Amino acid sequence: xxxxxxxxxxxxxxxxxxxxxxxxxxxxxxxxxxxxxxxxxxxxxxxxxxxxxxxxxxxxxxxxxxxxxxxxxxxxxxxxxxxxxxxxxxxxxxxxxxxxxxxxxxxxxxxxxxxxxxxxxxxxxxxxxxxxxx
Amino acid sequence: xxxxxxxxxxxxxxxxxxxxxxxxxxxxxxxxxxxxxxxxxxxxxxxxxxxxxxxxxxxxxxxxxxxxxxxxxxxxxxxxxxxxxxxxxxxxxxxx
Lengths: 134, 96
Known about the structure:
heterodimer; A: alpha+beta; six-stranded mixed sheet; two-stranded antiparallel ribbon; 8 strands; about 45% strand; B: alpha+beta; 5 helices
C-alpha cells in the first residue's frame, strides 16, 4: 500500500513544537483563501518508487510564508522547518507511514508576488526528497 | 589491491569529445522531457526550453535552460498559481 507522503509530512510539521510556536496549526496543502501569517504550505510535485513499490521517494516543496514587512518571521520559520526535517529527526514511524530519511535538495528565498507583482510577500521555498514506506 | 584515483586521467575523460557527445545526448533528452511536461498556454515557455552542453571546471556537463522571464513562477508556483516544477521533474526523469 502506498504512503500518503504529503499527509505524513504535513502532520509531522504540524505536530512539531517549534513550528507550532510559530504557526500554530497553519500547515496547509494549498494556500488558504483567508490567510493568517506566518504559515506553511506544502506540495508533493514529483516522486518515484523503489524496492518493487515498497519504498516511496517523493519530492516535497515546503513553503514558509510571512506577512508583508515580516521577513524575519519567514527566516525563523524556514529554520524551524529545516530543524524538523533533518534526516535523523524525521526518521521513524509516523501514523501515515515510516520515514527512512530526508534530504534537503535546495532552500531558496523567493518572495511571493502579489497584486500583479507590485508587492512581494516574504517566502522561503524548501525542496526535500524523502524515503518512506508503509 | 589498492586503487588510487588518477585525477589527471579523470580530468581528461570528463573533457574528452566522447564525453561531450554523451552529455549532448543527455541534454537533448532533458529538453525533450521538459517540453513534454511543460505547461502550455501560448507555447512560449515550452519553446524557450533548451538543452545544451557547457565545459566547466569538472568537464562537460549537460544544461537545461530557459530565457522565459516567468520561469520561476511556473517552476515554484505562487500563492495563487500552481507548481509545475518542469525543470526539476525533467531532471529527475533523466536516466543516466
